[in-house]
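Discrete fold record:
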Amino acid sequence: MVEDLDRSKKPAPTGEIKFKLPQIERFKLKNNLKVLFVRKENLPLLRFNLISESGSKIDPLEKKGLANLFTMVLDEGAGKFNAIELSEEFDVIGSRFGINCFNDNIRLTLQALTENLDRSLELFGTILLQPHLDEKSFERERRKILTSIQQLQDSPEDIADIAFDKLVFGEGNPYAYPVFGYKDDINNISIGDIRSIYENNFDPANSTLVVVGDSTCQELEEKLNNYLSSWKSTAQIKEPEKITKEGKLSVYLIHKEGSVQSEIRIGHLSGKRNGKEFFAKHLLNLIIGGQFSSRINLNLREDKGYTYGATSRFNYLKEASQFLVSTSVGSENTGNAIKEILKELKKIENGVTDTELDFARSSVIRRYPGNFETHGQITTNLASLVLYSLPDNYFDTYIDSLNSLKIEDVNKAGLENIHPDRLSILVVGDKNSVLKQLKELNISEVIEPDIWGKV
């Protein structure tokens, strides 16, 4: 007979969480392409993630969006296949191929069944070595981007995200621009520019291949050399100039006529991902706004009823990051919501409680092993080692790093990384409804940039 349970009491967690990632093996191909490999034998498949440090940060002025457009054209036909035939070739052997552009890098992904690995790598190599990069595909993909840019101008959420980056990072910073670029810039780009990226920037010298799956290091190295080693280095990659902007407390308003909601973004620049304070900042953010039970969400959603949700996070890029609070509220609650967010950020000076810290730490640790269940999750996490120059034992020591934190460490991180006097406060909403509320904050003059964040 089953004993009656007292369902009024939450079950206490039992046992210590331990995690160890399988060994990371490193080697180089004949063309010096760096490879990180983790063996995972539970399924007969492999996942590949090629990371090329040729993302949108290398886009030249007046041609923002070039790297992204390059990724859209790269797989539009290669070797003897056009775009449709190439897609069908992957489909018929059960493989999946994808390509995306980010601020810091371009990523090509491939998932293949072990039995079809050779054919999958042959197709993958064909895209790397023999892309068509033809004028017709270029014009078609350019039209797609221009249509997307036109559509996002009707989205207050997208406008807020794009403009906030521009305001926080500042004019001239490689991270201040949207990955997909601007309309005028896209019209400045030619097929010659696309081919120039391929020849001079998309290069094994600045790339790393992350592989997870059912193979051995020796077998994998042999196959990769067979299909990819002909991809040769052609140029010395130059890092873009880094420009930082010292923030000051400012209020910005982008008018979105007729909007009944206000998109709010509040934040400032922060330190890099591989800094020693990362773990303390991570737990601090969970307490501030990084989980449902966070201070900001409980205040704005549960107590005041201003929003369905409010979050905070540290957005990390390779050379910089930003601290950001974001939410969407009814226009009539815009000013009050900002006041409450500022109040919660100011309260960080008083520190966090032991209860808050224990809950945040426990929630991270107990779900941590679940971040490494699938091949895709593991390759994504390994990519962070490459992007942020982290040590190979980073994931194995992750839980120990969290457990070693004391409340003093988290409170110190709060004082050193949350700066109420440097915040950029951006609202995207109807000026007729919110301008008076923003002026009544008595923070600063209300500045009105365009929808891209340009003042």
User: Anything to note?
Assistant: The chain has two domains: 24-228, 250-447. Residues 166 and 454 are 7 Å apart (CA to CA). The domain at 24-228 is CATH 3.30.830.10 (Cytochrome Bc1 Complex; Chain A, domain 1). The chain has 16 helices and twelve strands.
